[in-house]
Amino acid sequence: MPLLSALAARFRAERPFDGLTIAACLHVTAETAVLVRTLRSGGASVRLAASNPLSTQDDIAAALTARDGVEVFAKAGVDRDAYYEHIELALGADEADGPDLVIDDGGDLVSTLHTRAQPAMLSRVRGGCEGTTTGVLRLRRMAADGTLAFPVIAASDTPVTRLVDNGHGTAQSVIDGLLRASGALLAGKTVVVAGFGACGVGIAEFARALGARVMITEVDPVRALDAVLRGFLVLPLADAAPLGEVFITATGSADVITGEHLAVMRDGAILANAGHFDVEIDVRALAAMAVRVDPDVRPHADAYELADGRRLLLLAEGRVVNLVAADGHPPEVMDLAFGIEALTLAWLAGRPERLPAEVHPVPADIDAEAAGMVLAALGTKTDSLTPAQRAYLASWRLGS
Q: What pLDDT is stored for residue 196 in this prediction?
């Protein structure tokens, strides 16, 4: 993770987080540990909770506590109540103990801070970062409702993040998790990808590259047109349900695959979710329809037998498959995503004035700086504009 390594060296010299507490709700993995150590190198006190109990690596949590003095509130496999208790512990007991900055993955930390914390604790927060599309959608709804109390930077919305994190990292790791959990051969199979956003595009392209016949379902006409022009078949999910052999949800919405769709799926259909929360596949409806459930027919794969004898294979309990059944994004991907968030937090910490309490984009120069640092680490060089080219691009008077 060369970008975070370079930033750690810079932060040790500049100390952008001296005296500040950062509350984080992230997947507790080795890559996250590198981010936490980078923030610590800049002087931050970090309290970490897990954004998904099924992705938590207990050895990583223990190492951060023992070796780095980080307060980690996370344990693999905890229930919903313990999950939110850990988030509250990461936020602190009161205003004096509350965070100055937050970094979230899915929006649960920010949501909890707004619904359960004291108002004085909210006023202390200078700002934060959100690393997922799902979380950004929640934050924008909070801002529209007038309930968002501090500025949050949408780290998932930068051109670099959409390209690398969504288009490559999510796509590769979702397919990896699907293959590990199911053991299926994708070549020749009909794969239905629900959602053709930045993540869905990558998943569809990766599945097609492995020889699958890929169908797309969408609610957005612009995205649907994009899928058609890329050569994918676009149709309603109700029409795709009896045709598909593998289903992957990547919408950020709820109730995408419902009992109506499950009722007409083929015997042996595989269900996987790439969205952050386990609400895209209606697992309750699937359980209600089943006359028998065979858990862990393979690691992270449960077989649901229906009354007519059909069996549907649910991966990762309907949770985010790339982090439950596989290792999530490769380190190179998380290096760039976390590097953008680290640079953004340092930018927020150093601002003399507080931004309005809205969802803001990552400053373009931060996105470009992160990409440039990664290219430098890879030994890749780019061209530079000449003075004449800069003048041409800056003037509307110059034509042919």
A: 97
Nearest to 194 by CA among 136, 252, 137, 269: 252
Tell me the whole-structure pTM to 2 decimals: 0.84
Q: What is the secondary structure of 284-349 as a DSSP string?
A: HHHHHHEEEEEEEEETTEEEEEETTS-EEEEEGGGSBHHHHSS--S-HHHHHHHHHHHHHHHHHHH
Amino acid, single-letter form, for residue 70: V
CB distance 324 to 316 below 8 Å: yes
Q: Which residues of the chain have pLDDT under 50?
A: none
Strand ranges (E), 55-94? 71-73
Amino acid type, 353: E
Residue 68 makes CB contacts below 8 A (sequence gap 6+) with 33, 36, 37, 40
Residues facing 246 on adjacent strands: 191, 270
Give the total residue count for the chain.
400
Q: Answer whether 317's CB lies under 8 Å from 181's CB.
A: no
Query: The dihedral of CA 127, 16, 29, 3: what is its sign?
Result: positive
Nearest CA among 257, 246, 314, 259 for reference residue 280 = 257
Phi-psi region of 180 (alpha: psi -120 to 50; beta: other; left: phi over 0): alpha
Nearest Cα to Cα of residue 243 among 305, 283, 191: 191
- pLDDT, tens only, 250-277: 998 999 999 999 999 999 999 999 998 8
Secondary structure element (H or E) that encloses residue 363, with its range = none
Instruction: List the alpha helices (DSSP H) in 130-256.
Output: 133-145, 159-160, 171-182, 198-209, 221-229, 237-240
d(CA 190, CA 205): 13
Instruction: Find all residues with CB under 8 Å of 312, minimum gap 6, and list them.
Output: 262, 265, 268, 269, 270, 271, 286, 303, 304, 306
Q: What angle do CA 162, 1, 179 make, to 5 degrees?
A: 60
Are 217 and 193 contacting, i.e. CB atoms less than 8 angstroms apart?
Answer: yes
DSSP class of 386 = -
Yes or no: say if 87 and 49 are a contact pair by the CB < 8 Å rule. yes
Helices 30-41 and 2-14, packing angle to 10 deg: 20
